[in-house]
Amino acid sequence: MPSPKKASAPAPKPPRPAAKKQPAKVGGVTMDVCLRVDSPKIREMEKKAAHRRGFKWALGLIAIICFFVLVKITVQEAILKNPQFELQDVAVQTRGPLSVEKIVRATLLTRGENLLTINMRALHTRLRQLPPVKDVAIERDFDAGLMTLRITQRQPVAWLDCPRLGMIAGRPEVGHLLDHEAVPFPCETVTETLAALPVIRYAALAQKTAGTAIQDLQLTSALKLLRELEERFEKGQPQVRSLDIQTPYSMLATFADKSVITFGVDDLDVQLARLDRIRLEARQRRWEIGTLNLLARQNVPITFRQPPDLAGLQPESPVPVTLSKTTSAR
């Protein structure tokens, strides 16, 4: 039988070559060598190349300038000087004490002005600076050359009278009106409608700025009372003619039927409910109220211009009882 072969041993790896040793530097000098070649011919060529580059830059700059000039001329001729965009008229839609003429003057617009160049934000600001103006809406109609102004004016509900601050009710220029938000604004012209408004007299008013709401508790309460009394007037009660803020806690209301009623600044709802009951009783019994003080919570003092009919209200007089004398029994 053949004998088994022995496993052959792995072949030995060849030895790595030894690294070459670099010779040690003993010393040396490093020098920068400029390899640029300079000659008259080369300088002449470089000068011509620089001239060509400058010519190209100048030509490009001239082309850009000509382009912008052309655009400017086109814009001026096609838009700015185009009669289609000229302002022909100003239409004002508003309702209130401020006249249309004064609104137009405040715009500072001129006929023939270009509609595209009008600063709409500045125009809006100028109109909002008018004290009677509450809101502004502006529209431009390029086809008709029309500027439409929709002005929302503050609606006056009363005159504010304070001679100490130069506010006199019912007079133009010095008279000031109030809206429901307690914003005062001067009255330009007194019409019949404005002359019929009630007057709020407030001698102790500290400040007033036209077009700015007055932050005052007594004045706010007076406006609330005025609104409630106007609603009752529409239901048949006498109309209020004036409110006089006498003290920090009381107001005096004068009505068209010559009645004078004192209200407190607080708890107006309770006082108005009592007033409604008294007015109803007075109407049923034909009483003519002279004065009424609703500050009192009990035993409300009230006077009448004519002797009132109190039938059925006064207690019946007691029946007199006569005691007979009796003799004592003996």
Task: Give the gist of this structure.
The protein has helices at residues 40-80, 100-107, 120-128, 192-195, 217-234, 268-285, and strands spanning 89-93, 133-141, 146-153, 158-161, 176-178, 184-186, 199-201, 240-247, 250-255, 260-264, 289-293, 302-304. It has 330 residues and is α/β, with parallel strands linked by helices. Keywords: Cell cycle, Cell division, Cell membrane, Membrane, Transmembrane, Transmembrane helix.
3D architecture notes:
With 330 residues, this protein is an alpha/beta fold. Helix content is 30%, strand content 19%. The strands form two sheets. A nine-stranded mixed beta sheet has the order 6-5-4-7-8-9-10-11-12, covered by helices on one side. Strands 1-3-2 form a three-stranded mixed beta sheet, with helices on one face. The radius of gyration is 49 Å and the shape is elongated. The model is unreliable at 319-330 (pLDDT under 50). Residues 86-142 form the POTRA domain. Residues 1-25, 308-330 are annotated as: Disordered.
Strand residue content: 15-25%
**CATH 4th-level superfamily of the domain at 158-304:** Cell division protein FtsQ/DivIB
Order of helices and strands: HEHHEEEEEHEHEEEHEE
Helix content: 25-40%
- CATH architectural group of the domain at 158-304: 3-Layer(aba) Sandwich
CATH C-level name of the domain at 158-304: Alpha Beta
Determine Rg (CA atoms, Å).
Answer: 49 Å
Detail the poorly predicted runs. 319-330
Indicate the mean pLDDT. 81
What would you call the structural class?
alpha/beta
